Amino acid sequence: MRINGLPLDEEKSELRKIIVANSGYKWILKCKPQKTCRWTKPELGEFKLSLDASLDENSGGLGGIIRNDEGMAITIFSTNTPSEEIFELELTAIRMGINRAQEMNIKRLRIEDNSLLVVNIIQGLSPIPWKKHMMVHQILETLKEFEAWRISHTWREADYLSKRNYICKGLNFPLPLATLELLEIINSDRSGFEYIRM
């Protein structure tokens, strides 16, 4: 049965309606509830480093943002890189982020990354790929220099900066020069705005 003149998707939808209408049954449609997530402030005296990396056909990008326990951004960094491996980009972002935190004399650091594999490797829950063993070892040695640190996984939507890929577009600027939209996103995170998980 064809319904002439309709795009394929619309045609399938119309066919479903016809089948349901003529089936003689009452249909109850159940929709899954939307799941939400939000960015949370670090504990008192702690700083949060949110990281992201991206890779396309031409190049890779990575970056991060460090916020204090009030949710205020104190530094944003990013860079482009020729790397062809997203896993390497994620590790490089962590290394850059913790180095930036050391430069700012941060003692207690909470790291959030949307790569569950990277988080598990840093936590010692997953084996380290042999090609990246030295890189992971260097990160772990640097983390020992902090008074306290922890790393956890975050849903991509929980850090809207990452979702919008702001930190992967070469935004290497002092905070006063941040765009209005970027500052609005940071303020939304601070206020506990709920994002819908995709």
Structural commentary:
This protein has 198 residues and is an alpha/beta fold. It has a single domain, classed as Ribonuclease H-like superfamily/Ribonuclease H (Nucleotidyltransferase, domain 5, 2-Layer Sandwich). Helix content is 33%, strand content 21%. The protein contains 6 helices and 7 strands, in the order H-E-E-E-E-H-E-H-H-E-H-H-E. The protein has helices at residues 8-21, 86-103, 116-122, 133-143, 160-163, 180-190, and strands at 36-37, 47-55, 60-67, 73-81, 108-113, 148-153, 195-196. It has a 5-stranded mixed sheet, with helices on one face. The chain has a two-stranded antiparallel sheet with strand order 1-7. A hairpin with a 5-residue loop joins strand 3 and strand 4 (73-81). Helix 2 (86-103) runs parallel beside helix 4 (133-143). The protein is globular, with a radius of gyration of 22 Å. The two termini are 34 Å apart. The model is unreliable at 1-6 (pLDDT under 50).
What's the CATH first level? Alpha Beta
CATH fold label:
Nucleotidyltransferase, domain 5
For the largest sheet, list the strands in their spatial order: 4-3-2-5-6
Share of residues in helices: 25-40%
CATH architecture: 2-Layer Sandwich
Please give the radius of gyration in angstroms: 22 Å
